[in-house]
Specification:
This protein has one domain: Cytochrome p450 (Orthogonal Bundle). The chain has a 5-stranded mixed β-sheet, sandwiched between helices. It has a 3-stranded antiparallel β-sheet with strand order 4-10-9. The termini are far apart. It contains 15 helices and 10 strands. Helix 7 crosses helix 8 and helix 8 crosses helix 11. The longest helix is centred in the middle third of the chain and has 31 residues. Strand 1 and strand 2 form a beta hairpin. The chain is α+β, with helices and mostly antiparallel strands. Bound molecules: protoporphyrin IX containing FE (HEM). Protoporphyrin IX containing FE binds next to helix 5, helix 11 and helix 15.
Length: 419
């Protein structure tokens, strides 16, 4: 039996907050190993890295989500007892419901809505002195998310709701005020969506047949019952919030176009589906989620190491996207690398790995890609803009992170399509 390299420490939680995204990576380097043990949140944690480890991590016989997601994350980012915390048959059935919302026609619907809102947003931005892309795209995507889902969103509430969804995401890596802000935003959001759930179920609000809201609100669980009001709200928010969160990737995409002007030119030509390669590289290159958690379901051995039932196990997401064993010159921004990518579900994991239907991999990956493509095309085909001096750097310590200025543009002009 081999011993897992171990960091001798009482607890490393504060160190994780101090180091941010590179926390796991620097230890894999130090131990020269794809596995090590540390202590976080006052418990032993085994940390794993690499493609083989990702295959292991997504084996439902060996791992479960029960008890793997800290309450502080549930109280900000994702809500309590939603799909992310389920295992077995209950997870499989509920995931099938989510995946039924991700068909090609539904994804196209979302992308078309995004295009409509981009077109009108550019008209609005033309009249503004300066435009902070991140905030504006959050608003735009909040409109898209609500319209697609069937949730009414009065115009006066757009900023408030978009900001709240943003704060829920921003709260996941924060302590103190940032965490409290995330919690408050979640409570407000849950109140809003729970009232909506009750009104729809009481027949006071009608939602159309083919909308995600109807699917989620009238979904019957493994015991044949409707989800209770709170869980239904959590699950509906599990599609609203992450659509708004795509604003982070879109802002990083704008940064990439600015930093690598040759990519901007290639987007303008958009030959051989270049926009798809570009957005994949944005999802690989820029940081969003640091790692994922699971608990050992039952004792097992892997590569001579013992995994004890109940142990918390983290999978290195950020490090996997920058691993030279997987990506040649990982610190170069090279969209073309995705032309020859083998499409393995275990080596490119910005939104989780494994199978979308049977595992916990992100249900909205295709929506994310298509909405990012719409943004990349609009920013290179249908608008001109200038950048005033600003701080576009981003911290690797803060989780989640963003270009500090939020990407401020001036002199936005709509480019008319020649007829
Ligand atoms: C799960 C990231 C967009 C819906 C996840 C997971 C990650 C993730 C890391 C967990 C994977 C795992 O546990 O193995 C992201 C990022 C997004 C994004 C970075 C873009 C900014 C979306 C969108 C939707 C969505 C647009 C829906 C419209 C979900 C759902 C789950 C999930 C329902 C839970 C899946 C499960 O537990 O089975 N996402 N996501 N996400 N995501 Fe996303």
């Amino acid at each position: 039996m081999s011993t897992i390299p171990e960091e001798k420490t009482l607890d490393n939680s504060l160190q994780l907050l101090r180091e941010g995204f590179p926390f796991l990576h620097s230890r894999f380097q130090r131990f020269q190993s794809d596995i090590f043990k540390t202590r976080l949140m006052m418990q032993n944690v085994i940390c794993l890295h690499g493609e083989e480890a990702t295959k292991l991590f997504y084996d439902p016989e060996k791992f479960m989500r029960l008890g793997a997601i800290p309450k502080r994350i549930q109280k900000t980012l994702m809500g309590e007892n939603g799909i992310q915390t389920l295992d077995g048959e209950e997870h499989r059935k509920r995931k099938a419901m989510f995946m039924s919302l991700m068909t090609r026609p539904q994804v196209t619907k979302v992308a078309n809505l995004a295009a409509d809102y981009w077109w009108s947003a550019i008209g609005k931005w033309e009249k503004m002195d300066q435009v902070k892309l991140f905030d504006e795209v959050q608003d735009l995507l909040c409109r898209v998310a609500c319209q697609w889902s069937g949730v009414p969103l009065p115009e006066k509430d757009v900023r408030k709701r978009a900001q709240d969804f943003g704060d829920m995401v921003d709260g996941f890596g924060g302590v103190g005020p940032r965490h409290w802000k995330g919690k408050k935003a979640r409570r407000r959001g849950e109140k809003w969506i729970m009232e909506f759930v009750e009104d729809v179920r009481a027949g006071k609000i009608y939602v159309a047949e083919d909308t995600p809201a109807r699917t989620i609100l009238f979904y019957r669980d493994t015991n044949g019952k409707l989800l209770d009001t709170y869980i239904a709200a959590v699950e509906l928010m599990n599609i609203l919030r992450p659509i708004v969160a795509i604003a982070t990737y879109i802002t990083f995409g704008a940064l990439a176009m600015h930093t690598y002007p040759e990519c901007r030119q290639k987007l303008q030509a958009n030959e051989d589906n270049y926009a798809e390669l570009f957005v994949q590289e944005v999802r690989r290159f820029y940081p969003f989620g640091p790692f994922l958690g699971n608990r050992v379901r039952q004792d097992f051995e892997w590569r001579g190491h013992h995994f004890k039932k109940g142990t918390l196990v983290f999978l290195d997401m950020y490090g996997a996207l920058h691993d030279p064993k997987i990506w040649e010159h990982p610190d170069d921004f090279r969209p073309e690398r995705f032309r020859t990518w083998d499409e393995s579900p275990y080596n490119f994991i910005p939104q989780g790995g494994g199978d979308h239907y049977t595992g916990h991999r992100c249900a909205g990956e295709r929506i994310t890609i298509e909405v990012m493509k719409v943004a990349a095309i609009f920013m290179t085909h249908f608008m001109d803009y200038q950048l005033p001096p600003q701080d576009l750097s981003f911290s690797l310590v803060r989780m989640p992170t963003l270009p500090k200025s939020g990407f401020v543009m001036r002199n936005v002009r709509r480019i008319q399509i020649p007829v």
